[in-house]
Amino acid sequence: MNLLKIVFTFELRMLRRQRLVLCLIAFFFLTGLYSIYDGYHLTKKQLTAIDSLERNYDQKFNELAKNFTADTTTSAGKTSYAQAGIPSVIEYRNPLNAIHKPATLSSLSVGQRDILPYYEVITRKRNAVNAPNAEITNPEMLAAGNFDLAYVIIYLFPLLAIALSYNTWSKEKEQQTDRLLAVQGKHLERIIVYKLGFRFTVVALLAWLLSAIGIISDSQLSSFNLTTSLLWFFAVTVYLAFWFSTCLLLIKLGKSSAVNALYLLAAWCFFLLVLPAITNAFIRQIYPIPLKMDEAVALRENSEAIWAMPKQALIDTFYANHPNYNSLKSATDTSDNSTVRFSAYYDLLGRKMTSVIARYNQYPRKQNLISAKLSWINPATKTQYLLNSITESGLTDYLSYQNQVNHFQKTWVDFMTDYIIHNRTLSLADLHHLPEFKMQPAPGKNTNILTDIFGLLIISLSILFLSTKIKLPL
């Protein structure tokens, strides 16, 4: 314990005297602050858009509710009262939005929330190519990406760890103080570990400080969640431990400071540039994703094909899918203005488009599954998955959202169809009890995240154990 105190005290004094290192730490701190601001700005922009959607929906909802008590002594009042409770009018004037709100700490790890739609308009006609679902093709936006705190920790903090640690032992040799340390005998290895431990503490404290600031900042946008915050701190700490374990392993090879720096920068390039590029190219080669424009083509073709179907065949398909309405069969079902025909059209179109969307999503889902498996060969990629999972901003959460939207779409269609097929209108009480979309969290999410963090910790400890088997060359 005395040796640890001596080493930490000495390293702290040396740190205070090294203005360049202090400036470097200050630079990373300011960079982290900017990343927090950038993520906060993007998340706030999305929340502002969501708030606008919700206020617009409430405003139109109140207008529809007023139709039930409209003044029938005027022409406009008679029209409003006559339209009160008509399902198609309600759906047209005030369509429901299935919203995927930013989760806790999503401003710290934006993930793919900037390029994936976070709300969908729900009607009986499943429109997969409406505004929120249109594919983003702005090359400048796609090239720039996000500069959030997760990016700073995953990509930039390893460089700080390298800058502080590359000469932990080689500097002693170059200053010819290694012989003096060698007098310590068996304590020499411990001294080097303690010196590197001090540098880990400095970097970890900086990461924790930025994370604490980010959590406080994010709490202004969404509710604070202690479990999510602890998982974030745990994941960040284990990731930094991986890099310092790697530093210790390469440092104990006994090379010069220049060679150590070269080796460590090569490791940084391998884990953060080369390996992700190779795995992404491999995954895209195996599971290429088709153009999203195919959904627009499918919508147009299905719309035309279903409407061109023989009326009786279309209606028979509807009754086959909804046997609970068989008692309502009538000879007038095949008339041009039959509500059954329109219901059958929207029902079949919705089923086909849901199937099209499901087929399209299977490609990114397959990519995501194999990416998650291959991420274990790269701790940096695994950490990115972990942080995105903690903040619910990754592709996995988006695919879960899409799946829940598909289920809710059917719920909405069945609800409206029941009124239309029975030629009934909604009462004011029915209007206040419309189906609502609520995003459900994945079951066992925190347990899976904690398991992955422990897996990453085992990798770090394995590297650390391997480094203990290497003797420092004197």
TrEMBL record:
The chain crosses the membrane at residues 20-37, 149-169, 196-217, 229-251, 263-283. Coiled coil: none annotated. The keyword rRNA-binding does not apply. The keyword Ribosomal protein does not apply. It comes from the Bacteria. InterPro entries: DUF3526. Keywords: Membrane, Transmembrane, Transmembrane helix. It holds the Pfam family DUF3526. This is ABC-2 type transport system permease protein. It comes from Pedobacter terrae.
